Amino acid sequence: MNSDFSILRRRFLQAGAAFAAASFLPTGISRAAGVDERRLTIAPGRASLLGKDKPESDVWTYDGVVPGPLLRVRQGQPVRILVENRLDEDTTVHWHGIRLPNDMDGVPGLTQPPIRPGETFTYEFTPPDAGTFWYHPHANSLEQLGRGLAGVLIVDEIDPVAVDRDLLWVLRDWRVTLEGQIASGFGNMMEAGMSGRVGNIVTLNGAVPGDQPVRAGERVRLRLVNVSLARIMGLRFEGHDPLVVAIDGQPCEPHRPEDGRLLLGPAMRIDLMIDMTGVPGGRYRVTDDFYKGLEYELLVLAYSDEAPLRTTFPEPIALPLNPLPEPDLSAPDRHDLTLEGGMMSRMKEAGGMGRGMMQGMGGMMGMGQALWSINGTSMTGDGHADMPPLMSLARGKTHLITMRNLTAWWHPMHLHGFSFRVLTRNGAEAPYSQWADTVLMAPEDTVEVAFVADNPGDWMLHCHVTDHQMAGLMTVLRVANAGQEK
Predict the structure, then answer these.
(1) How is domain 163-303 classified at the CATH fold level?
(2) Please, are residues 298 and 287 in contact by the beta-carbon 8 Å criterion?
(3) pTM of the predicted protein model
(4) With contact defined as beta carbons under 8 Å apart, do 323 and 387 qualify?
(5) Pure H helices in 93-165
(6) Is the pLDDT of residue 119 over 70?
(7) What count of other Cβ atoms lies within 10 Å of the Cβ of residue 233?
(8) Where is the signal peptide (predicted)?
(9) Is pLDDT of 452 > 80?
C-alpha cells in the first residue's frame, strides 16, 4: 500500500507540473462542436420524503423532482440552460463551484437581475473543470433551498475514469411536521445565531435511504454531495476503506480519510473510490456520527450473492487534474478575514450586531438583522445591487487569504467564481494538495487559502450554513476589470 501511494503521489505531482501553466480552458481540451442546450423549470411540486404509504410533502422543485435532475455535461463544451420561474417569488440559479463569467453566477442584483415569476433567464458558460458540482437558488435561499431547490451538475472528464460504476449520493436533511409537510419557521434567530436550521429527517437522492446494492470485487466511484441548509455529516463506512480522490470537484492526492471519517459540510462534495472488498451476501453499515449523541445509520451496503467480480484490484486511480492556475506563493498579496458573532462567541458590535442580540432570540429574522460579521461588517440576505466590496483584488495576481473563525460555531466558507488551494490549517500544512471552493472551519480555526484572481467581477464569499449567510456572514470580493476603480 505504501508503494502504491508513493507511485500515486509522484504521478500526481508530475501531472500538477504539466498543468501549472495551463490557461482557463486548456489547449489540451478541445471545444466540442455545438452547444449543449438544456431547460429547467422551477415550480411547486410534491415528494415522498417520508417513504411509501406516507403523506407526500409540498416542495419546490426543478422539473418536478427533488433533488433536481442530474445535469451531466462535458468538460470544455459550451452549455446553455434556460431557466423558467413558475414560483410566486423571484429566484436565480447559482452554479456552485463552476468557474464561469460573473454575469452567469446567479446572485440577484449583484450579477444578474432576479428571475421574476413567469419569466426566464438563460445561463451560458463553458465548464473548464471536470468534477462534481451542484446548483441552487441564491434568492430567498434559506426557504427556497429548504423547500427542495437543489440539483447536481456533473462535468465529465474528456477520457472516462476506469471504474465499474459511478454512483451519486445527494444527501440532505429536511425539517418536516408529523403530517409530512415542510415545517415553517425559516429565519429563526436562535438557530441563526447557533448551528442553523438542522432538519429532523435525512434523505438520499430525495428518498428515505435504503440498501445500496453492491457486488463483491467491483470498484465504485461514489460522489457525495451535501445540499443541506446547515447539517454537517461525519460519515463512516463499516468494513471498507474509501479513498478520497476529489474535493469540491477538484482532484487531490488520493488518501484515506483521517480516522476513517469523512467530514462533509453543507455545499461540500467529496469523490471516493471504494473497492468493494466485502463478502457476497454481506451487509455493512454507513453511519453519520458528527453530532455527539445523535449518531444514526444512513444506509447499508448490501452485497449480492454473486461471485466477486475480481479478487485482486488494480492500483488506485488518481483523477486527471483540472487546469487551475497555480498560486505563486513567493510574493502573494495578503488579506485577513475575521469571522465573528453568533451566540456564545466573542462578539463585536458591527452595524448593531451584538447589541440586544440575546433579546428576543426566539423570533424571526427581519431584513437587515445581523448576527454575524466579517471584518466587522455584515451583509444580510442573498445579494442586491451596489453591494460594496470588502476588498479589491488585483487581477492576475496571487492572493493569500487568512480566515480566522473567532466564533463558537462551524462555518463552511464558500467563494464564488474560484477554486482555491488550501495551504494551512491552524499553522500546519494542509495535506494532499487540496483545492476547494468551500472550506469547513471548526470553532477557533485559522485557515490559509490562495488563488489567482484571474476572473473579473464582484464575487460573493459567505458561510454556507444558510442561516449564517442570511444573518450577515457574507461579503463581496472585487476582482477589477482593466480600468475599473480598485
Answers:
(1) Immunoglobulin-like (2.60.40)
(2) yes
(3) 0.90
(4) no
(5) 141-146
(6) yes
(7) 24
(8) 1-20
(9) yes
| 89 Cβ neighbours under 8 A, 6+ residues apart | 117, 139, 140
φ, ψ of residue 136 in degrees (nearest 5): -165, 165
286's grid cell: 454507513
Reading the block at residue 357, the C-alpha cell is: 442580540
Residues 230/266, Cβ–Cβ less than 8 Å: yes
Give the pLDDT of residue 480: 87
Q: In this structure, how many other beta carbons lie within 10 angstroms of the beta carbon of residue 36?
A: 16
Q: What is the CATH number of domain 333-479?
A: 2.60.40.420
Amino acid found at 266: P
What are the structural domain ranges in the chain?
36-156, 163-303, 333-479
Query: Which residues have a Cβ under 8 Å from the Cβ of 317 and sit 6 or more positions away?
Result: 161, 162, 163, 245, 254, 273
What b-and-e string marks burial along 80-114, b requiring 16 or more CB atoms within 10 Å of the CB? Answer: ebebebebeebbbbbbbbbbbebebbbbbbbbbeb
CA separation for the pair 250, 433 (Å, rounded): 10
Span 36-156 CATH architecture: Sandwich (2.60)
Residue 2, helix vs strand vs coil: helix
Tell me the C-alpha to C-alpha distance, in Å, between residue 90 and each of 62, 148, 364, 366, 380: 15, 16, 21, 18, 17
